[in-house]
Amino acid sequence: MILGVYANWQTELDAWAKQVNEARKPSRVVPAPHLAVLAQADRSRYADRIGAWLEGLKTGAGLDATDPRLHLRNRFIRDPKVFATSAGRDQAYRLTVKAWNAWAVQEPMRLLKLAEREQIPTVVQ
């Protein structure tokens, strides 16, 4: 199953894997869910925003209080142990999608959170 997924997404996964891994240490964003989000984003009309997304996560430089990248960085830096389990990776995926979607459509973010019974968000196309 995993090999089938990889075969269908190989170009996108290969394109972003190294940079997602480079963003992991400074931002603590969990790499596998992050890579899944960026692979989907790479097939969207917002693909051109991925480079700036990653740069903001890596450095945190110049991010204002409404920047979704800042909220995602802060969440993962503040609570790294929460995301270490399989349930945590699910949360990591959901939070990353929400932050990416807001960033992609240039929507300011005041708070990054998950509602208890919230559906799994889809990556904006």
Automatic annotation (TrEMBL):
<protein>
    <submittedName>
        <fullName>Uncharacterized protein</fullName>
    </submittedName>
</protein>
